[in-house]
Design goal:
Elements (H helix, E strand, L loop, with lengths): L9 E3 L2 E3 L4 H21 L8 E9 L2 E8 L4 E6 L22
Antiparallel strand pairs: 1-2, 3-4, 4-5
């Protein structure tokens, strides 16, 4: 059986990046799995149907929500509140009626 080669560090934009160890990879997978389970418990009425979970956040005037489906697809919307002007009207209702009109 041939020996496995040890993964080498790669350089990205002059920064050396070391590969993660298998133990670190397992730890990251467990953290992700726990986070997904927590999100599934937030809205239990949608879990198990077409939707796996719903999450949202708001920050600095933005509102975002994500809908994760059971097939792995994610629907995400990022909204920022704005004022949309449809009509601008300026009138003077304090006018004097002249006798000739």
């Amino acid at each position: 059986m041939p020996k496995k080669k040890k993964a080498k560090a790669v350089t990205v934009d002059g920064i050396p990046i070391k590969p993660i160890s298998p133990a670190e990879h397992r730890r990251l997978e467990m953290r992700i799995k726990k986070k997904y389970e927590k999100l599934r418990r937030r809205y239990p009425e949608v879990h198990g149907k077409k939707v796996d979970w719903i999450s949202y956040w708001h920050e600095e005037g933005y509102l975002s929500f994500n809908v994760r489906f059971t097939d792995g697809k994610n629907f995400s919307i990022l909204c920022s509140p704005t004022i949309v002007t449809n009509v601008v009207d300026f009138s003077d209702v304090n006018y004097r009626r002249r006798d000739g009109d």
